[in-house]
Design brief:
Layout (H helix, E strand, L loop, with lengths): L5 E5 L3 H13 L3 E5 L2 H9 L7 E5 L1 E2 L2 E2 H9 L7 E5 L4 H10 L3 E4 L4 H14 L17 H13 L6 E4 L6 H11 L7 E5 L6 H6 L4 H4 L4 E5 L6 H13 L4 E6 L3 H6 L5 H7 L2 E4 L7 H19 L5 E2 L1 H9 L5 H15 L4 E2 L1 H4 L13 H19 L4 H8 L3 H11 L5
Parallel strand pairs: 1-2, 1-3, 3-6, 6-7, 8-11, 8-12, 9-10, 10-11, 13-14
Antiparallel strand pairs: 4-5
Helix pairs in contact: 2-3, 13-14, 13-15, 17-18, 17-19, 18-19
GO molecular function: ATP binding; sequence-specific DNA binding
Keywords: ATP-binding, Nucleotide-binding, Phosphoprotein, Transcription, Transcription regulation, Two-component regulatory system
InterPro entries: AAA_lid_NorR (IPR058031), CheY-like_superfamily (IPR011006), Homeodomain-like_sf (IPR009057), HTH_Fis (IPR002197), P-loop_NTPase (IPR027417), Sig_transdc_resp-reg_receiver (IPR001789), Sigma_54_int (IPR002078)
Length: 415
């Protein structure tokens, strides 16, 4: 049940943590153990791989499990949480369940009962696609895993697929992954991009066009919303007549208003949307933006900037908070430019966002300067104490709660 599952354990008690770690690893799980809320927050926000479950003690030395869960809720949907609590914390655990946590167990507990509850939790949660040949495609967030689940389901049928999403969201990657996972993977994958070739009649229906060359493979029509009314009618006729291959289409999020205005055929929409896969924008999935940065850095840095050894924490925070109107395409372009300009050894925010550098005739306001100075000092203190908020607060001569509030205000995770 737990074999190859990736589980984050948040437990400050050495004996309890060691016991849970050993038993979970005996069950075949991969476990990442953190003893502090601040360290766990960073690990869950920017995981190295999709997280199947988080086991979290409600009482932690630098905060609480409830504080950790609530903080994660503010920026997205956390992985399923199984809370551990004493008798006095049952009310708090019930509150967390109402807020969206998956389950809780009360100390002391039988290990067999704990493992059964955890297994049920993991099994009921949507699984990421597993297998070395097909690693995560969209990221590590819950939203990304939902997309991967829809991809897996779409790969098992031959119905048309409609992929919806803004620029740079990876619609072509989704189509290709469905094809590669399907029983058509050995047949051709033919792409017709109507954003580049507006003549759909020639690109799709002429001799040597998409329908003529796809055979039993997959025909992927990108920017389908750009089709003329006549070409929409031709495509509808071809779908109804049937053909050996499979049809997938993609466009932005503009189809519904086009249907209401009569600019796109509702009949064609319902034929294409037998299976619909919406892709949420990257700015709603900040953990996936950081994941994508790490993936692209690993591929591009050795070739374009071999002297760089990694990505700074500040750079990851900047990527997390950016709006990314161009999606992953924008991120890749910024990274390539940043690799060319970076002086190393770590990639910095100004490498990706040079526009944030003050111009010669500009000066920061006192408030901006104060925030920048505070952020630098907090980062230095956290680095010296290895993320221990209590110890960092002592170095900065402020209360732990004050430090935590400042970290939230300045967008620091503590990792």
């Amino acid at each position: 049940m737990l074999r190859n599952r990736y589980i984050v354990l948040v437990e400050d008690d050495q004996i309890m943590g060691t016991s849970l770690l050993q038993r979970l690893e005996l069950e075949g799980a991969q476990v990442l153990w953190h003893k502090q809320m601040a360290r766990a927050l960073g690990a869950i926000r920017t995981p190295k791989k999709p997280i199947d479950a988080v086991i979290c003690d409600i009482g932690l030395p630098d905060g609480s499990g409830e504080e950790l869960f609530s903080t994660l809720l503010r920026t997205g949907t956390p992985p399923p949480f199984l809370f551990i609590t004493g008798q006095g914390g049952i009310g708090q655990a019930v509150r967390l369940i109402k807020s969206g946590a998956a389950d809780y167990v009360t100390k002391p507990f039988e290990m067999s009962v704990f493992l059964e509850r955890l297994s049920l939790l993991v099994e009921s949660h949507e699984k990421p696609f597993q297998g070395e040949d097909f690693p995560p495609l969209m990221g590590v967030s819950v939203a990304a895993r939902r997309i991967e689940s829809l991809i897996d389901k779409a790969a098992t049928s031959s119905h048309p697929v409609l992929i919806l999403g803004g620029p740079g969201t990876g619609k072509d990657l989704v189509a290709r992954r469905i094809h590669d996972l399907s029983d058509r993977s050995a047949a051709p994958f033919v792409t017709v991009n109507l954003a580049r070739n507006a003549d759909a009649k020639e690109a799709l229906f002429s001799p040597g066009g998409g329908f003529d060359s796809v055979g039993e493979g997959t025909l992927f029509v990108s920017a389908v919303s750009k089709m003329s009314a006549g070409d929409q009618a031709r495509l509808l006729e071809r779908i109804d007549a049937g053909f050996e291959g499979r049809l997938m289409a993609a466009c932005g999020n503009d189809l519904e208003p086009m249907i209401e205005q009569g600019a796109f055929s509702s009949e064609l929409f319902y034929r294409l949307a037998r299976t619909e896969i919406p892709i949420s924008p990257l700015n709603t999935r900040p953990e996936d933006a950081v994941w994508l940065l790490q993936q692209l850095f690993g591929k591009l840095a050795p070739r374009h900037a071999p002297e760089l050894t990694g990505i700074s924490g500040l750079c990851e925070e900047a990527v997390r908070s950016h709006d990314w109107p161009g999606g992953g395409r924008d991120l890749r372009a910024r990274l390539l430019r940043g690799l060319a300009m970076a002086t190393g050894p770590l990639l910095q925010p100004t490498d990706l966002f040079p526009e944030r550098l003050a111009k010669p005739d500009e000066i920061m306001s006192l408030a901006e300067a104060r925030d920048a100075a505070e952020k630098a000092q907090i980062i230095a203190a956290l680095d010296r104490t290895e993320g221990q908020i209590g110890e960092a607060a002592k170095l900065l001569r402020i209360a732990r709660t004050t430090l935590w509030e400042k970290m939230q205000k300045l967008g620091l995770s503590g990792s």
